[in-house]
Amino acid sequence: MRLSSYFVPTLKEIPSDAIIPSHVLMIRAGLIRMVSAGIYSFLPMGYRVVKKIIEIIREEMDAIGGQEFHLPALNPKEIWEQTGRVEAFGDTLFHVKNRDYVLAPTHEEIMAFHAKGSLTSYKDLPQIWYQIQTKFRNEPRPRSGVIRGRQFLMKDSYTFDRSYEDLDKSYALHDKAYRKIFDRCGLKYFVVGASSGAMGGSKSEEFMVKSEAGEDTVAYCENCGYAANVEVAQSNVQSVKRNEKSEPLKEIYTPNVKSIDELCNFLKIKEEQCAKSRIYINEGNPILVLMLGNDEVNESKLQLITGSAVRPAHPDELKEIAGADAGSIGPVGFKYRIIADNRLKNANNMFSGANKNDYHLGGIDFNRDIPNIEFFDLRIVQANESCVRCGSKLDVFKAIELGHIFKLGTKYSEALGVNYLDEKGEEHPIVMGSYGIGVERIFACFIEQNYDEKGIVWSKPLSPFDVHIIALNMKSKLISETAELIYSRLKEEGFEVLYDDRDGITAGFKFNDADLLGMPLQIIVGEKNLKDGNVEVKIRKTGEKRIYKISELHQEIKKLL
Hints:
The chain is globular. The strands form eight sheets. Strands 3, 7, 8, 9, 10, 11, 12, 23 and 26 form a nine-stranded mixed beta sheet that branches. The mean pLDDT is about 95. The protein folds into three domains: about 20-235 and about 395-445, 2-Layer Sandwich (BirA Bifunctional Protein, domain 2); about 250-375, YbaK protein, CATH 3.90.960.10; about 465-560, Anticodon-binding domain (Rossmann fold). It is of the alpha+beta class.
């Protein structure tokens, strides 16, 4: 491809709206342009990378028996209502103006729709169906370039099996395929246990890369390899020790005391003596959640316990539910469901709100004073806590999700009536799995892991081109003719070649563009080396420069690539 006629609008300046490296470099290198917040166009060179990622994904999905579909992005809303996901996705689901249709953020419902009535016998199973399609999510705060957008390209696949044992096999096939995909794309990644969220199901894992640009937080143990999204991560932390003697309940006047720290300062007590109360709403019903001290509620864990979406109660709801405002709410006398974190099990002589503004209770015995209380792991894991597997310290850091695999079970097949007949003629719901990969996220994450102060550092197989030829002076007949000859020969040899044949552009400008665009190899055609029948080859990753005979060039390029 000749750069003189190729649309590659590079920029010298850093875009004001771009912060993370991949976003900055994708715009500066002319790979993408923003149309609106969270909506991007891929320009010709950027789309070359997208197509290479898609082909790698397609090859590995086909290798495990996947069959490729192309499904509509526009879905009838009624199908989504049958599975309850219009409510589960909430405001992130795009609705078409007449409200009868939605723009799909994923395609479980439509795949199940096609399976219904078609996969009717055990002989039809198993099946692996997939597509690579545009998805839509109404992200309230799209950011980080293509990593979190409102429109994005995704590979989503779905498995249909007779049993959970067969689902295990389909899940393992996808796990293996995903590792091959990310390995072939040259990414450094790790796998973590995760929450299924609005997808539902019994088990899920995320494939992630460590990055400050990530919107997920991961707990990781370097010693044993334990890794989990903080949505489900656990750690070994001490629980409250029960005192031998339980004090009687006592009401304490605590004017203007709202937080745990304020309560500790006011009463001269330790944080470990306090139980923080928060009220959530689940399907219209209040739930009081109790945490030790300043531990934070992990709402993903809470949702797994309740089995459906939860939200914090609004300030104007608290008085009606508990008789007090935030900061004065507590478990004693609370009329609705009460859930406490495991660290509070069997605790006594604790302090919490009295359900009366400006008052707290002391001497609370969880066994004596709070009937029907339930205990679960509810807290968000913190850095340096002990690993649940080996006891070593946990690291907690930001990460970007590349892919997510789910064991859906029968959630969608039961909701949509997707059943099959076994050998005895008995009907059963088909057991499903769902598996997603973000195409643009692979693109962005590769750049996040492969750049320097000059620009992107590509490597095969994602590099837009293998070789970047730089003709230093197009007015020189020797340079232009030699560059043309090298360009033609390398293309004939099957290399993908970008040729900077622009006239009137300084050598410095061409070098800067070449480093910004970041092809693995640069071939520099200049008069100094041409006098001896040589050209200079620069390895972009290391900056190393080598001199080669023009006659030997294509063989040396093969070796270097």
